[in-house]
Amino acid sequence: MGPRIGPMGEEPQMPDKDTKAMMSTEDTPGGKASPNPQDLRRSVFYNIKFFVLCHSLLQLAQLMISGYLKSSISTVEKRFGLSSQTSGLLAAFNEVGNTALIVFVSYFGSRVHRPRLIGYGAVLVALAGLLMSLPHFISEPYHYDRASPVDKPQDFEASLCQTKTLVPAPTPSNSSCSSYMESQHLAVVGIMFTAQTLLGVGSVPIQPFGISYIDDFAHNSNSPLYLGILFAVTMMGPGMAYGLGGLMLRLYVDIDRMPEGGISLNSKDPRWVGAWWLGFLISAGAVALAAVPYFFFPREMPKEKHELRFRRKVLAVSDSLVSKDEESPSEKQDGLVQIAPDLTVIQFIKVFPRVLLRTLRHPIFLLVVLAQVCTSSMVAGMATFLPKFLERQFSVTASYANLLIGGLTIPSAITGIVVGGIVVKRLHLGPMRCGALCLLGALFCLFLSLPLFFMGCPTHQIVGVTHQPRNLTGPELVPACRERCSCPLDDFNPVCDPSTHVEYLTPCQAGCTRRVSQETLDKSQVFYTNCSCVVGGGPVPAGSCDSACSHLVLPFMFLVSLGAALASLTHTPSFMLILRGVKKEDKTLAVGIQFMLLRVLAWMPSPVIHGSAIDTTCVYWAQSCGRRAVCRYYDHDLLRNRFIGLQFFFKTGSLACFALILAILRQQDKEERTQVAVSIPGLQQQQPLVSGPEKKPEEYTA
């Protein structure tokens, strides 16, 4: 049943023929009134199937732009000198604008021109995407060798060992800072946070209004199929975001303003920064194109009259995403409107806390939401920082890490959601078995995370970082092999001694005096020779030393993807527990409260928590204008233990909640069986999750 348009208790009324003939200009495509109902029906904008197609594409593009930042988070950190805590806050900031306004969607419901409001929201999302790319255009070109003078080619003699009498004494990096550079950095960060806020605000009307619009004007039998198609297409958005990130990060960040003479970096160099901004432009363009049709859809259209002939063949899959037992999504979004349709906005705000507290008193509802909060916290942290973790732990490029996630983990999660829905539907699982399925999924997901603690290697030796004191300065710390060298203090141009697997921050620290570039058909490789600190004098290749555990990246991703599938398996049965765990009059509002709590308790804080934990494992910070900037090196063992440990903590919390839910369900089932044993012979089917009027067993079959 769709949202109530008139007073409470009235069914939504479709305009009759006379009314449709007198529709106002704003309710017709392009703003032109058409007095002939037959003409209206023939218009493509009065076809609910065309609306489903447009909305599927829009939600796909919107999720792609929302998830793209996560695919390029480590690149943005390097480009603008951000810590993981700051980047995690940035990734979560779109939830701030979304959460602040999502409650009011329930209030406005169908009182507004829903397609047009969706179009306005999509335009705002596209503008937010353009704003996210703006820092690239207002910033100076990226100098990956900041020790080089501006008028010299990058990565030139400044990184080499030069006699102290030939160069000025090294100076700290903040001597070259200015108030302009600091203000520019603050402006760039402020622009990105503003863009993320606008992205969240623009996303508010897209999904709820689109779902309620489809449910209102689709045939009652076709609505689950349309919503199943919508969700199936939408779920591909995050995977496409990681795929787009994998493609864009292969390109150099300044591809539109390459330095004269080109660059001598490849994508495996730790100084490499990909074209992160290009993905925002592409996805913003996709959202803008998908927004155009919404300004031509009417406020109301004739309700679909015919059931699709092939509906039964594909309904099983769509029902796995949108179960018939669930209330229609439009009712979920319009919960408060149905409770109090005549409330003003002020009265709506006043009554909301009381209804919220009443809903939270349901033990099953509260425990399911807590379990979902733990699962969502795990997913949010993994989605934001898994690419960076793979880069650091296994020495893979940002592009390859994104392709692994988009090609393995995201499809596995989608498969888990669909399989969970099919199992609930086909096996007609009641509340008890739904709880057992959730418990098993969480348990096996937890077991699969145990081997991840041991799949990695410690940080290799880095001169001046991992096996020398970092808090002392003076001539006594300078090895005799490079006493004559004057090395810049803020330079970062790592080289690796392949014979000993020891890394130096710069060729100067390795005592190298010459640079050689070898050109091949597809790439250029840089070597440094005459290195006094290297046995045999070199040559040593530019770039960091590869991890000794690079071969473990695929087994690691296999376990992560399998765990994601098992965690996603609990999605549909846990959602059914919420619908069956509260009283009928509270169902619609319970779903809205559930999504609000997930945003506030999981999707907003989790990236910040994971980013803060990652920052605690840093062993060498870059300095910019006297402040701590991006982390250059991490303690790999500590990083792995804390990142996987956080995931393990949230998985344990989810398992504990599902165990309590199953215990409560068993107790309630035992009490219900005792009550009916006197009057009804045999054992009944599973009973309601909450006390109240006795319900028919059919209510609990999918």
TrEMBL record:
Gene3D superfamilies: MFS general substrate transporter like domains
Keywords carried by this UniProt record: Cell membrane, Disulfide bond, Ion transport, Membrane, Transmembrane, Transmembrane helix, Transport
Cross-referenced SUPFAM superfamilies: MFS general substrate transporter (SSF103473)
Domain of life: Eukaryota
Parts of the chain that traverse the membrane: 50-69, 89-110, 117-138, 185-204, 225-253, 273-297, 364-386, 398-424, 436-456, 552-579, 600-623, 643-665
Main localization (coarse): membrane
GO terms for cellular component: apical plasma membrane; basolateral plasma membrane
Residue numbers spanned by region Disordered: 1-36
Residues of the Kazal-like domain: 475-535
Compartment annotation: Cell membrane
Biological processes per GO annotation: monoatomic ion transport; sodium-independent organic anion transport
Topology in the lipid bilayer: Multi-pass membrane protein
One term of GO molecular function: bile acid transmembrane transporter activity
NCBIfam families linked to this entry: oat (TIGR00805)
Family: Belongs to the organo anion transporter (TC 2.A.60) family.
PANTHER family the record matches: ORGANIC ANION TRANSPORTER, SOLUTE CARRIER ORGANIC ANION TRANSPORTER FAMILY MEMBER 2B1
Identification of the protein by name: Solute carrier organic anion transporter family member
Organism of provenance: Suricata suricatta (Meerkat)
Lineage per the UniProt record: Eukaryota, Metazoa, Chordata, Craniata, Vertebrata
